[in-house]
Specification:
Shape: elongated
Largest sheet: 6 strands, mixed
Structural class: alpha/beta
Oligomer: single chain
Number of strands: 14
Strand order of the largest sheet: 3-5-4-6-9-11
Number of helices: 25
Length: about 675
């Protein structure tokens, strides 16, 4: 979060009396509100709740609403400053942005530079490359857009992204880019401020409600679904300036009601709620009421304005910036959720770093005079962003020594979740892939057709390797259920899987077009969870369950290929790895970080419903062969991510080149795939 200068209204915003005083210094043209210590106290609640939630989510599941508290505070302060300066003809857009640079950049650049250096020592190439992209996103304030686009099928755990928390700062800065310009435009045309605030708040809130039902990730990261929260603060700013009579009474009641709404939000909200949505009104209205109550209300005066609360509030911005990278790096190093002692230490260190940053970097630079410091900060920001771009462009510099620990990622021919059609289908088979389809081939007369999602794509390097060189064609789609008879456009997956039905139908057409294809291999990620719950597939307005869709969709695909006279092999999915394979590696020593395995009993319990559905599919389509690779990965007691020194996974679900060869060779030995001549 980015709390601005610690200023706000005096205790009494009486009508006819300007609550603002000219800022000190001849080179500062704008008016700024007087300091209200209870605002810093409210910031301490916001940052404290976020830090505790991130460090100990098992204790404080609703702490994430601290971000929404920050949004309302920021909207209130910024709108108050702009409204009053415009009305007094003192507003300078240049001065406004100069102050933003001096307020935001010192602590932000410090944290980002430290993360870049630490990442170069701690992170593997794929992780460091991603951090480079996030450094670029942080310096350009588009982090929320990047994380929005990253979320989904191939996304790594949020806990392993050291700069994930910059999404909220990006939303605030996007707001600051357009809000002063819009208000200046409105003021010149003599339009009412309250009207434009209300219109933006209403449109944004409606977008929020729509997205939370259709794409919750978009609702969380989209600025258009979040601006209404800042407008809640903007509404209070207008009231304090022009209609103080509306909130002049019941200050004590306002304060207690605001506190009650915040406490209710902390207690009721958790990751299972559709958030923001209607639920975000709890922290936003609660913050509105606490701000509206003013510094004279008992809770504001005695609790929020107390020295400990104000002390944390003063460092709330650098504390927000420091806490998450420390927790994230702790998780990365531990290879799993870090022990409580580590997390507690990370919080203590974050507080110390925040105070140091505030005292020795943030405060001196914010009050430094002259334009040189502004240009220096801008140059540093550009350099950090360019450095991030270089790191990303170079794939995280895999030549760094630490990457030698990851033999499976050091190979250039390993599927990485982003491979697209390379033109081989058009060149060899004269096929034009449909939208979103991944079509790959190594033969003009393929004998095997592979159909599925990215779990099939993960076999690509092994299928086309010199060792196997199976004459094949692959038709697949990211995150796709290749059901040819069940049209489906999922609401919660962006960029991929919007054309799965067409991809499945294209695969059937490919089988028909090439008589040389004798075997069709079908596979895909299994639907986890309760398969009896409704899916988003419908037949005659009847919502199918996950199990019904699985049996109907794959059944139609199997029967289509059987009708063409093909041998059909349905490959049950590989075990879902309950850990990141990176966690198996000791980043600072020679020994393993942790056992690279998990319980077979746990695996069987997770897959119980899926295995039952696969057995039912086998019974419904007895002419097809079902190949279950679980025994290749699991013994009687445990499932492994590493066998004989070879990693079997690239992430928690996509198998490596070594495992792909292992699986395909097992299918060859079982007579399900042909051997290459001479093998």
């Amino acid at each position: 979060m980015a709390p601005i200068q610690k200023h706000i209204l005096p205790p009494n915003g009486a009508p006819g009396v300007s609550p603002l005083a000219p800022a000190a210094g001849p080179d500062v043209p704008q008016l700024h509100p007087k300091y209200r210590p209870d605002i810093d106290g409210l910031r301490s609640i916001a940052v404290g709740s976020v830090v505790i939630f991130h460090a100990f989510p098992e204790w404080f599941k609703g702490g994430f609403i601290g971000v929404d508290i920050f949004f309302v505070i920021s909207g209130f302060l910024i709108s108050l400053i702009i409204f009053n300066n415009l009305e007094h003809e003192r507003f300078s857009i240049l001065d406004f942005y100069v102050r933003r640079v001096k307020r935001i950049f010192p602590a932000l650049m410090t944290v980002m530079i430290v993360c870049a250096v630490a990442g170069g020592v701690i992170l593997f190439a794929d992780e460091y490359g991603q951090l480079g992209k996030h450094l670029l996103g942080g310096s350009t304030f588009i982090s929320n857009i990047l994380f929005w686009r990253e979320s989904g099928y191939f996304d790594n755990s949020a806990e392993t992204k050291p700069l994930l928390h910059l999404w909220s700062l990006a939303i605030e800065e996007q707001f600051y880019l357009f809000w002063p310009l819009l208000l200046a435009f409105v003021w010149k045309r003599k339009w009412g401020f309250l009207r434009i605030v209300g219109m933006i708040a209403l449109v944004s809130f409606v977008i929020n409600l729509h997205l939370v039902d259709h794409d919750q990730t978009a609702a969380f990261y989209s600025p258009f679904a979040r601006f209404w929260e800042l407008m809640v603060g903007g509404t209070l700013a207008y009231i304090n300036l022009h209609r103080p009579d509306l909130n002049a009474r019941g200050k004590q009641l306002q304060s207690w009601m605001g506190l009650a709404l915040l406490v209710t939000g902390f207690v009721l909200l958790n990751g299972d709620r559709s958030f923001p949505g209607w639920w975000a009104l709890l922290p936003c209205v609660g913050t509105f009421l606490l701000l509206s109550a003013g510094p004279g209300a008992w809770f504001n005066r005695k609790v929020l304005a107390s020295k400990p609360m104000v002390g944390i509030g003063l460092i709330s911005y650098p504390l927000y910036l420091w806490h998450w990278p420390l927790l994230s790096f702790a998780t990365i190093i531990a290879g799993q959720t870090a022990p409580q002692q580590w997390r507690l230490l990370a919080v203590v260190v974050a507080v110390l770093l925040a105070w140091g940053t505030f005292l020795f970097i943030e405060r001196p630079l914010r009050h430094a005079r002259g334009v040189r410091i502004v240009w220096t900060l801008l140059v540093v920001n550009v350099v950090v962003g360019l450095a991030g771009g270089v790191i990303y462009h170079n794939g995280g510099f895999p030549q760094r020594p630490i990457n030698e620990k990851l033999d499976y990622l050091a190979r250039s021919d390993v599927f990485n979740g982003s491979r697209n059609s390379d033109g081989s289908c058009t060149r060899l088979n004269h096929l034009d892939p449909v939208n979103e389809e991944v079509c790959l081939s190594n033969s003009a007369t393929p004998q095997i057709l592979f159909v599925g999602d990215s779990h099939v794509m993960a076999l690509h390097s092994a299928i086309f390797s010199r060792q196997l060189a199976l004459p094949s064609i692959m038709v697949a789609g990211h995150a796709c259920r290749v059901y040819p008879n069940l049209p489906y456009k999922p609401a919660n997956v962006r960029r991929w899987s919007n054309n799965c039905t067409a991809i499945a139908q294209q695969a059937i057409a490919v089988g028909q077009q090439f008589p040389s294809i004798r075997t069709v291999v079908i596979s895909g990620a299994y639907p986890r969870g309760n398969l009896d719950l409704p899916s988003q597939y419908k037949v005659n307005d009847h919502a199918l369950s996950q199990r019904e869709a699985f049996l109907s969709g794959y059944g139609a695909l199997i029967e289509s290929f059987l009708a063409q006279g093909k041998q059909v092999v349905f490959v049950a999915d590989v075990p879902f790895l309950k850990l990141d394979p990176h966690a198996c590696v000791n980043r600072f020593g020679a020994g393993p970080m942790r056992e690279c395995a998990f319980s077979r009993a746990e695996h069987d319990e997770i897959r119980k419903a899926y295995d039952a559905a696969v057995n039912e599919l086998r019974q419904l389509h007895p002419k097809a062969t079902v190949f279950d690779p679980v025994e290749l990965f699991c013994s009687a007691t445990q499932c492994q991510a590493k066998i004989d020194g070879a990693y079997l996974y690239n992430d928690d679900q996509h198998i490596s080149l070594a495992a792909s060869k292992y699986l395909l060779q097992s299918m060859q030995r079982d007579g399900l795939l042909p051997f290459r001549p001479g093998q």
